[in-house]
Write a structure and sequence with these properties.
Helix content is 40%, strand content 5%. By secondary structure, it is mainly alpha-helical. It has a single domain, classed as Arc Repressor Mutant, subunit A (Orthogonal Bundle). The protein has a two-stranded antiparallel ribbon. The longest helix is centred in the middle third of the chain and has 12 residues. The structure holds FE2/S2 (inorganic) cluster. FE2/S2 (inorganic) cluster (FES) binds next to loops.
């Protein structure tokens, strides 16, 4: 990772989270990958953090001066899709 990251550089392209968004989350109290994820949605996109999670972890380590094991990893979740009431009720109007 390069040394001088600009705030407008994109880290999580699925959720359009920038370096600046991650820095703001850290300034607001986030101390690990999961806490940054909860505040910014980085890692909650379609790839579920496969592309961005390591970058998020490295930014946290750099900003806080902590090791990677302290920054940790997020808990994996299965992707969720919106479900209509029609689907839940089985009325056939969702097609
Ligand atoms: S790039 Fe962050 S969730 Fe896909």
């Amino acid at each position: 990772m390069k040394d001088n990251l600009r705030d407008d550089e994109l880290v999580c392209r699925c959720e359009e989270v920038t370096v600046g968004d991650i820095r703001k989350a850290i300034q607001a109290g986030a101390r690990d990958v999961t806490e940054v994820k909860l505040r910014t949605r980085a890692g909650m996109g379609l790839c579920q953090g496969r592309t961005c999670e390591l970058l998020v972890q490295q930014i946290i380590c750099r900003e806080l001066g902590i090791s990677a094991d302290k920054a940790g990893f997020s808990t994996p979740r299965t992707p969720q899709r919106p479900v209509t009431f029609g689907t839940l009720g089985g009325d056939g109007f969702d097609k």
